[in-house]
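User: Second chain of the day. Same drill as before.
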Amino acid sequence: MSNVTTNPSTSAALTVLRGINKDLDVVQQQVSSGYRIQKASDDPTYWSMATTMRSDQSSLSTITDALGLGASKVDTASTAMDTVVSLLTQIQSKLVSAKEAGTNKDAINSDIQQLKNQLQSVTQSASFSGENWLYNTAQQPSTQQSVISNFTRGTGGQISFTTISYDSSQTLMIDTAQPARGLLTKNVDASTFDSSSSGSSTPRNYYLLSATGGTTPTGGTEIALSSSTTDDELTDMINVTNSLLKSATSADSTLGLMKSNIDDQSDYISKLSDAIKSSVGDLVDTNMEEASARQSALQTAQQMGVQALSIANSMASKVLIILQSK
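Assistant: Same format as last time:
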């Protein structure tokens, strides 16, 4: 039955149109923002999960920066250690050449002193971000270095961090405060390399460098040549230098391993961050293909709803015409 005051058909058409307009507004918002779930009221569970994962991704970004800083420190120390190993190798070669009869030991010593000066320069310049793992002037140096490598979130939401650690005392080459801590400034007993000597032999201590501006180790002899250097003394110097070279090579290898660990961890963190980003997208991002198809369907339904409302409204006009004709 048609009613001039109340038109059920118009009310029904208007209700349907309102629902279509509401759905269309939601879809258009999803398309324009790119998010299917933009705020907590859209879906509390998924929104909470996505927010936590975004927080983790931000933490991973900070860890990536920390790994980059740590890698730079290790690169600086490793590059310097490569040079130290090379210079020690050259010094050892010079000492071996001095074993030849008739060689000018004073001239060879001049070359050795030049190589020593380079060792001083290389170790002092191996500094990055205020840290130098090869050269120390402090009475109490910090030798335990660490780089944050990752974090884990427990079942209760608590966060714990993991680190890559390194004992930089292995790479301490020169120590001006306490020469005994520096590989190149400490005394090394040459008698320990003499298989013919007994355990009660008198120590024959040698050190390679006298740190500039620092103290020299007591009871030791600097590795240096002169015309009066004996073959036995030269042999001791060669053995001590060879021992220093082995220790420096080992320290350099350890740095290389740490660098490799940092590179591997950086690659893992990058992949993990990408995975989290993708997972967040699966939870809250708009599926553009689906949303576009739904938007088109709702726009079509909106047009049909407007037409239906127009038809329903026209029914009242027709009733009015009938009444006027009476």
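The radius of gyration is 40 Å.

User: Great, on to the next one.
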